[in-house]
Amino acid sequence: MANVIISPSKYVQGAGELSNVAEYAVKLGKKPFILISEGGRKRVGGTIEDSFKDTGCELVFEIFNGECSRKEIDRLVAIVKEKGCDLVLGVGGGKIFDTAKAVAYYTENPVIICPTIAATDAPCSALTVVYTDDGVFEEYLWLPANPNLVLVDTDIIAKAPARLLVSGMGDALATYFEAKACQISNATSCAGGKVTVAAMTLAKACYDTLIEEGVKAKLAVEQNVCTPAVEKIIEANTLLSGIGFESGGLAGAHAIHNGLTCIKECHHLYHGEKVAFGTLTQLVLENADEDLLDEVISFCMEVGLPTTFADLGIENPDKDALMEAATLAAAPTDTLGNEPVEITPEKVYAAMVGADALGRYYKGLE
Are 116 and 43 in contact (CB under 8 A)? Predict the structure, then answer.
């Protein structure tokens, strides 16, 4: 099988870039369908409208219902077809991006992704994660192409709550370790081939950037400012992790995240927060060395990512509930099979409990 790397056609990152969205959009379509949250419409809708003011384009705004589910995708596909839109813009966060990408695919339109937060690595990928209407992981929808454009306005992202940027760091934290697992096991990546040197280099750069810049970026964003560290973390969360996970591959961390979606106490968490605990669990499953575990756990604690069941909201861990999550994570349809170690629900359960024990040890709780 060939080595494969894929990426968005164009990636643009900088201060105030959302005001330039029409400059790129008019090359792709004349009647954009803009998927956005109600809050997002209030915050940045005017900027988008001003950008298109003299283009002759007819804008169709639609408020996202909140979940990337089959029902929501079908609803939006019907609207795009009814209105005759020829371009899809997803403006906001991860579930909006994934929904917009799916809608563009089913309506055979180009798609532009405009993050207002850097909370996941979803913007750059040719992947939609589909959930039930209740927020439980259902399936991966693998798309034939990456977005035509990812446009990142760092001024807007720096003004978002720091927890969202930290969640993006949690999602990005998994990138190198999952790619490494796929490389060792010779697994097929999400790009449909073997892992390239380029993908591994980007994945390692992603991890190194998190360790070097993560705390500085969190502190800056808490003050609503965009420093060079913030710029680097936005790129790590969005581009480096986006290409790194897709062309490097998914393994334990994201499968464990998917398993955790069945535990109701975790529903308040962001995607990257659950992925961070999934990363720690993956490292326990792989029996990572102590120095690496120390670096990863210390990083998570410094920026505020979960390292224990209590951090996830699971104050009284129930073995049956954890086994259900472990069984879901180890399903043949998920990506735990890309790990270079034997996988059973019992081993995943043990790794989750072991990760929690490590987290509590580092917090001085035992």
Answer: yes
Q: Tell me the C-alpha distance between 213 and 169, whole Å.
A: 10
Active site residues: 171, 254, 257, 271
How far, CA to CA in Å, does 225 sit from each of 157, 158, 215, 363? Answer: 10, 6, 14, 30
- Taking CA 358 as the corner, what is the angle to CA 352 and CA 361, rounded to the nearest 5 degrees? 145
Q: Which positions ≥6 away from 53 have C-beta within 8 Å?
A: none
Check whether 366 has a pLDDT greater than 80.
Answer: no
pTM: 0.93
> Among residues 340, 314, 339, 337, which one has the least CA distance to residue 325?
314
pLDDT greater than 90 at residue 325 = yes
- Contact at 8 Å (CB) between 199 and 244? yes
**DSSP string for 221-248:** HHTT---HHHHHHHHIIIIIHHHHHHHH
- Give the domains, in start order, of the chain with CATH numbers: 11-158 (3.40.50.1970), 162-362 (1.20.1090.10)
pLDDT at site 120: 87
**Among residues 328, 281, 312, which one has the least CA distance to residue 131?**
328
**pLDDT for residue 365:** 78
pLDDT tens per residue across span 337-355: 999 999 999 999 999 999 9
